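Changelog-adjacent note: as of this version, every example in the card shows the full chain rather than a window. The one below runs 253 residues end to end.
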Amino acid sequence: MMGGGIWYLKRCELFEQLSELEAAQLNRHALTRTFKRGTVIYSPHQPGESVMVLASGRVKIHDLTLEGRETIIAFIEEGELFGELALVDGEARQDYAEAVDNCQVLVIPREDLVALMGARADIAMSVTKLIGLRRRRIETRLRNLLFLSSRARMAHILVELSETHGDHVGRRVDLRVPLSHQDVASLIGVTRETATLTLNQMQSEGLVEVARKRIVVLDFPRLRAEVVGGADATPQKPPATLPLRPIPPSAPR
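Full-length structure tokens:
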């Protein structure tokens, strides 16, 4: 019978193909820790000595601006790896990981996973791909922050969350992550008031349904078309134009 730590490893997509021996070796120095909701799991400047697998609950990765405003980077769900930048160089943490719900976390020493990556090229490739995808999302959000309107940023983040944390049924997507208006504001870099106004506008257009800490995308193809500029976007009526008046002839000088 598998021990708790090995069972948690097997639930992680990165490690589900490990043999029993490989899983046992990766688990031998790992610790299972429990964090209550709202507890900081790690913070900037702490040593990057481990990577973590979320066994249960939900975790928020975030940072703070110089003004003390929260910027949400990612949400981590059960079976996902986080703290993965420790694998790059073992340098200090750069952000916060906070328990959104009561959580159980499997803490794996960095050197143990590095050793496994050295022995299993497929694991190394999967971890590298994970790091690359998460970095790309951050870079995309930064570009959006610099160049897009708040409405466009909202559409982008709802598409991203639908693809990473959504349950799709037809055109509808139920987001598994509970989101307050402040959470959404922190994801796209606007005030809570702007986030609320934008969500209300999208709700009036039939794109989303907003309830307390719950967002449902009602028409994902139309929302995605808005992001990519596809042909499926809802056609907009051209602005009304007034008939041109003839220009009177110039008076003789």
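Structural remarks: The longest strand covers residues 50-56.
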